[in-house]
Amino acid sequence: MSSNRSAWQITLIYLIVSALWILLSDNALTWLGFGAELQQRLQTVKGLMFISLSAGLIFFLTRNYLRRRRQQERELRISEQRFELALAGSEDGVWDWQLNSGQVHFSRQCRAMLGFSETGKADPAGKWAELLHPEDSAAARQALRDHLAGRTQRFHHVHRLRHQQDGFRWFEASGRALRDPTGKPWRILGILRDVTAQKESEDRLRQAAVVFDSTTEGVVITDADNRMLNVNQAFCQITGYSADEVIGAKPSVLKSGWHDADFYQQMWQALEQDGNWQGEVWNRRKNGEIYPQWQTINSVYDKDGKLSHYVAVFADISKIKRSEQEIDFLAHNDPLTRLPNRLLLNERLENAIQRAKRQDEKVGLIFIAIDRFKAVNDSLGHSAGDDLLRAAAQRMLARSREQDTLARLGGDEFVLLVDDIQSADALIPVAKRLLACFDQPFDIDQQPLHLSVSLGISLYPDDGNDARALLTHADTALTLAKDSGRNTYAFYTQALTLHARERIALESSLHQAISGRQLRVYYQPQVDLSNGRIIGLEALVRWQHPELGLLTPDRFLPIAVTAGLMISIDEYVLNQACQQMQRWLDAGFGLQRMAVNMSGSWLERGQVVESVKQSLARNGLHAHFLELELTETEAMRHSESNLERLDSLRQLGIALAIDDFGTGYSSLMRLKRLPVNRLKIDRGFVSELPHDQNDAAIARAIIALGQSLNMELVAEGVETREQAAMLTDMGCHIAQGFLYSRPLPAVEIEELLQQQLSSSLS
Ligand code: C2E
Ligand code: MG
Ligand code: MG
């Protein structure tokens, strides 16, 4: 506008000066009074002068104008070049939008950023809205509208625009509108910056921050001087230190003192050489606890390759270590008692044998079994059984030497490996100590429980050269200890091996014995002590072995139990006894009772009631002539369902007797509950009568107990008249024993009965 005015002013001045010149010069010529011809010529000169002056003026003005313009253009070009250079340096692009015409100009940089070629036809101009990412479109347009409406000082927005070859990229657009005097925007000019990389690194940083905070692995960042700059939440949880406590300190605050200087030196060396180190470190928590961690340390370098930080990431592996140790422990130890198991025992035994071989020494192996453990387990339950095993293990361990190994093989079987001994005799005090461990009762379920153990002993090199042989032989010796009444120890001898072989041979021929009718039933009389008359009989099994001759039950019944043949034997004897009794009743021998032994397995398996019914029915015998005997140990260990079976037997009218009374562990509660008519005093308390005071006291006590429970008493194993007399005095009225008769075959018993019948008739 001002240039227009100056142009007008110059033109006006020129017009005035020209007009004045024309008017004044013409008047001056007239006033000077020149002639018409001279005036004519002066007029021409004057005109020429005017033209020359005007031309000169035009020349100077034009020249000045053009000079200034060129100068301005040059300056503009320089400033444009500077601007372009500055933009190129900053990698920003420029856009210029004429709002009225809708024309948009994108700078070269801008086009390149959006993937448009410099020379190609495709043009981003006017396409801004189309290039916007659908998710960002609304917000970007709103930001523009706000600025155009004057609600914001500056247009600024970050959004995605479609790149011609590379999908969407992130851009930061900013600009400012130019407005007319009324404030209406007519043009908006701004810059565009590709911030994709920045955005991605921001995202990465954000993700890294989340990982840093949420990972369960501890993370420590230190500076190049190894001072802690930052630690994460997991670090604090694992070490027990808060971030404030450790930032600025060196990681050596966690040192456990378990690693020597060499260890750290190697770590730093690896960090220097390779830029990273990985390994297990034992550190100390704030509470003093030392724990293992698996740690990775990385060196971080700046752009110039200078060390700037260390980043250490570590996991607390104490739990893994513990479970590794536990797995390792359980592979070699019994979980219940924590004692070494068979595997570890074998290892130690092999080692002990090797050592003994070199040093010409002996190794002892004691096989230990808790007597009647099964009864405890069955009657008190498995958890009480477990408690007992633990307590027994504790006691035995406390009494063993440190260099010896007490192992549990399973069930109630333990083994003590006694290392470094000179002779078998050295094992006797060890065995006695083990037996003594069981002198005191165990307190299980708040009940005192009296137990004992049987021990079988074998010796290297006397009884075997390897672990396997020693174990087998100790086990064989254990059987001997059990057979000789339990609560004792026995050494392995060659004879024992023969015994074991014989057992195996007997077991296989026992099957044939049952089917091949080799079993015999012998009968032993029970006598009324007041008159010496046979009032009953006990049926006792025998095996007529084709080669070994007549075998008594102690030779084959234990084998029958393990071979599962007891039930067949009992049923056979029952049937024979019922048949025989009915015959003798028919013959008029006036017998009151036929006693038949009942094994635990028969009672347990449940079909005993049915078998008895059938046997009675088959032989036409009345139930009250039959008595079933159950040993005290069996009677005490059976479960409620067995009690019900005993009740059913009683209900059939059958009498029940407890055999070998005094040898087991009767509970009075249970005894009262049992539907029993008779107690048979064990031979063990009778044989030493009348001399043994203790036995006499026990016999007297049993008789008193029986009487108070309203039970009949039978004394077993009466061999002398003194015994009979003493028992009569004590209040026992029935006896069985060699004094009256050994167990005999039916034919011989019949003779006795016949004699008795004849004498009573005469
Ligand atoms: P038990 O039922 O206590 O039988 C009494 C045992 O004592 C018999 O031994 C008998 O011969 C023996 N005996 C009797 N009087 C005397 C004596 O005065 N002195 C001595 N030293 N011994 C005497 P046996 O026949 O060898 O039977 C042993 C055990 O085998 C029996 O003890 C019984 O528990 C069991 N048994 C025998 N036959 C059978 C059977 O058919 N079934 C079952 N389940 N067990 C049986
Ligand atoms: Mg008996
Ligand atoms: Mg008996």
Structure description:
The protein is of the alpha+beta class and 762 residues long. The strands form 5 sheets. An 8-stranded mixed β-barrel has the order 18-19-21-22-23-24-25-26, surrounded by 5 helices. Strands 2-1-5-4-3 form a 5-stranded antiparallel β-sheet, sandwiched between helices. It has a 5-stranded antiparallel β-sheet with strand order 7-6-10-9-8. A hairpin with a 3-residue loop joins strand 19 (533-545) and strand 20. The termini are far apart. The model has no long low-confidence stretch (mean pLDDT 89). It binds ligand C2E and magnesium ion (2 copies). One magnesium ion (MG) binds at residues 659-660, 680, 716. Ligand C2E binds next to strand 19, helix 17, helix 18 and strand 23.
List keywords for this structure.
Beta-Lactamase, 5-stranded antiparallel beta sheet, 27 helices, binds ligand C2E, alpha+beta, 8-stranded mixed beta barrel, binds magnesium ion, 762 residues
What is the element layout, followed by pairings?
Blueprint: H1 2-32, H2 36-90, E1 93-98, E2 104-106, H3 108-113, H4 128-131, H5 134-148, E3 155-162, E4 168-179, E5 185-194, H6 196-214, E6 218-223, E7 228-231, H7 233-239, H8 243-246, H9 261-274, E8 276-284, E9 290-301, E10 307-316, H10 318-332, H11 342-359, E11 362-370, H12 373-380, H13 382-398, E12 405-410, E13 413-421, H14 427-436, E14 442-444, E15 447-449, E16 453-460, H15 467-483, E17 489-491, H16 494-515, E18 519-528, E19 533-545, E20 549-551, H17 553-562, H18 566-586, E21 593-597, H19 600-605, H20 608-619, E22 626-631, H21 632-637, H22 640-651, E23 655-661, H23 668-673, E24 678-681, H24 683-686, H25 693-708, E25 712-715, H26 721-730, E26 734-735, E27 744-745, H27 746-761
Parallel strand pairs: 16-17, 19-21, 21-22, 22-23, 23-24, 24-25, 25-26
Antiparallel strand pairs: 1-2, 1-5, 3-4, 4-5, 6-7, 6-10, 8-9, 9-10, 11-13, 11-16, 12-13, 14-15, 18-19, 18-26, 18-27, 19-20
Helix pairs in contact: 1-2, 12-13, 18-20
Bound molecules: ligand C2E and magnesium ion (MG) (2 copies).
One magnesium ion (MG) binds near residues 659, 660, 680 and 716.
